[in-house]
Request: fold
Amino acid sequence: MCASKKGISALQLQRMLELGSYESAWFMCHRIRHAMLTPAGFLKGDVEVDETYVGGKPRKMNSQTGRQNPGGRGTKKVPVVALVERGGRVRTKVVTDVTGATLKDAIKKMVHRDSKIITDEWASYNGIGRYYRGGHRTVNHGSGQYAMPDGTNTNTVESYFALVKRGVYGNSHHVSAKHLFRYMAEFEFRWNYRGSDDRTRTIAALAQADGKRLMYKGVGGNA
Reply:
């Protein structure tokens, strides 16, 4: 789990380790993700922020209504906001919605006030600049704008989300809202240690396990 860029499925671990049940492998994966939970700390500098939706990949057409399922901000999947420090760490948070109050609250809790916030044109981010000495810069994806001459872009956070989605859809196929924060902790941990080799990354995960304990009854349910 520390070495594979997109993660590894519990079913694959069950086969590799010859475990007696899928549930054992599934619970073990969640215990490792629990150890990978990133300690709190403010991000600093230029911080890119974006939100996306993660979960089971929906069918293109709704079998009950006969209409096309909405994508993007119209989907019923679970919203996740990610904040990436340029050249540094990432923090993620599973949120209930992508309203201005929710997104701004997440940013203020995770980003130092001396920083600069960089987002796309989504209206929920409007006004966040008043809380930061570096202000708020945007790129307008709707008009085909993806990078400004001064370096304003959200390419880093979008790259992070692309990695998350390839891992979730390729390995897990479906992730429930209940457990999504643990899957995000796994991707977050690997990103934050991306400059380390596999051995160093694994030792860091083992060190973070000290003092942590996750009971099966505290997890409950599959996916």
About this structure: The first helix runs from residue 10 to 17.
